[in-house]
Amino acid sequence: MERVTRARLVGGLALLALLAGAASVAVGSAAIPLAHVVRALSGQGDPIERAILFELRLPRAILGLAVGAMLGLSGAALQGFLRNPLAEPSVLGASNGASLGAVIALYFGLAELHPAMLPIVAIAGAFAALGLLFVLSAGSQSALSLILAGIAVGTLAVAGVSLALNLSPNPFAAMEIMTWLLGSLEDRSFSHVALALPCITLGMVLVAWDSHALDALTLGEDGARALGVDLRRTRVRMLVGVAIGVGGAVAVSGAIGFIGLIVPHLVRPMTDRSPSAILLPSALGGAALLSFADVLVRVIPTSNELKLGVVTAFLGVPVFLVHLMRERRLW
Amino acid sequence: MVALSADRLSVRRARRVVVDDVSFAAEGGALIGIVGPNGAGKSTLVQALLGLVPATGAILLDGVPLAERSRREIAQTVAYLPQGQSLHWPLSVERLVALGRLPHLAPLSRISRDDHAAIARAMVAADVTTLAARVATEISGGERARVLLARALAVEAPALIVDEPLASLDPAHQIAVMDILRAQAARGVLVIAVLHDLGLAARYCDRILVLDAGRLVADGAPSAVLTPARLRETYGVRAWFGSIEGVPVVVPLTRDSAQGD
């Protein structure tokens, strides 16, 4: 019984992610009929339409799916690993570190040297945050000390970003940083995909590797060790996986919040609630949700294109209101 | 059959000696009780036997030093039910019992048919099949104690170490749990149980280790170990010893005034 519903859940979410990806390819400011999309994908059709599809929309769709999957998966894994339902990729400071790296690249003009420069410095920022996290929480295996160290690292990174905004030489430079911080997948190319996808793939494998350890940790650290879990290795894999994967994701998309926080909460009621059972559904759900949000920013008519991070933040609020009402037994 | 031995085992915590020079050897097929006053080092001793706390001295599991075995190997060989196990996540009872199969699972693999059979056996043995779909954080303390025992049984390891498995159980379930431990020993499992109920320990155990202030002060058959003099010395109590229908009975009566504070 359980297996059937799980197969249905995973199948349903995979279909949803596929639809979202297809919508992301099909929808945009230039109206391209579906028949033309199909023709372009088979290597025929109008060269301008093909250029739009392959050089603008396809990389954007791939990044939407991959970044969403990484954020959803790492949120689900961290909630289990830290045994805290409010955990998300940013609690360990990796995404803030990546943001700081990107801001440094923008502030010092490194981003103008080469399109790949910003993402590379952003990934370096995620690793610097990870290194600091290891130094601060060394020797301790408790979830609380890890969360405290993560908050310290993340706050430091946010302070650095604020400093860059504060000291930016002119309003345009500050605006450029602010725009990046809002998060977007606009104008991304296959060079971004080539940079982010290996990071995200490696990150997802490392994070998902310890799914059994996450289940064992529901019995606490000693309980998990008595079940054969090597907590030190689990911790290294988890933290490195989040830093590489989320660092790679944030590097190309900017800071997109709430996906890692809300998606596990959305899929959890449809599973047996064990930490391992929500990993795959959260990855698929994250991919679908971020891709749909990315279609939404193109469809909603505003003078400037809406930023993705703004839309996901607005999506996050109702989910938490529902949880609050359930907690207070109002619903 | 599994063999577990400790040679001059000591554990220090914050410069205090918690387990002091303990040596013993045990083999499968026996139910061994560890008794002693609060703070005698019973839980620390069993944690050291599992390699969960740093200790000096030698621990051999099937002739191999514990330090040379991986956490996974130890977990496959020795199942452990900690004292007062806390639950950090609202799992269903069935999923919680299924955690017992984790030592046998390769990374990224899923639970097999054999695993399901072991989980079902453990749930029947601990009398928790009717609770399968309930949420483990929302059941009563006594029910949770039995569910956690089922979790330890589901490992189906050749050795089983349980720390105060009777806490918060009613008399019927206390006897049921001791019957389970007895049955495990009869199947060849080495069962080591930290117990507080001296009557049940006397009645069910093949052998009893008495721990006092970290030291092993007595080791032998219940009748040889649980004596009025030993109880007065270790616990500071006078006790009534007897037998009802052939069942040994130990009833602590009063605190011994000579030991009182």
From TrEMBL, chain A:
Alphabetical GO CC annotations of the entry are: plasma membrane
Q: Which PANTHER family match?
A: ABC TRANSPORTER PERMEASE PROTEIN MJ0876-RELATED (PTHR30472:SF25), FERRIC ENTEROBACTIN TRANSPORT SYSTEM PERMEASE PROTEIN (PTHR30472)
Biological process, per Gene Ontology: siderophore-iron import into cell
Q: What is this protein called?
A: Iron complex transport system permease protein
Write down the Pfam families for this protein, in alphabetical order.
FecCD
Question: Which keywords are on file for this protein?
Answer: Cell membrane, Membrane, Transmembrane, Transmembrane helix, Transport
SUPFAM superfamilies on file: ABC transporter involved in vitamin B12 uptake, BtuC (SSF81345)
| Membrane-spanning intervals of the chain | 61-78, 90-110, 116-136, 143-165, 190-209, 239-263, 275-296, 308-325
Q: What is its main location?
A: membrane
Q: Which family does it belong to?
A: Belongs to the binding-protein-dependent transport system permease family. FecCD subfamily.
Name the Gene Ontology molecular function terms of this record.
transmembrane transporter activity
Topological type in the membrane: Multi-pass membrane protein
Q: Where in the cell is it found?
A: Cell membrane
Lineage, top-rank taxon, reads Bacteria
Automatic annotation (TrEMBL), chain B:
| Molecular function, one GO term | ATP binding
Similarity field: Belongs to the ABC transporter superfamily.
The residue ranges of the ABC transporter domain are 4-238
User: What name goes with this protein?
Assistant: Iron complex transport system ATP-binding protein
Arranged from A to Z, the UniProt key words for this protein are: ATP-binding, Nucleotide-binding, Translocase, Transport
Report the function annotation for this chain: Part of the ABC transporter complex HmuTUV involved in hemin import. Responsible for energy coupling to the transport system.
Kindly name one Pfam family recorded for this protein. ABC_tran
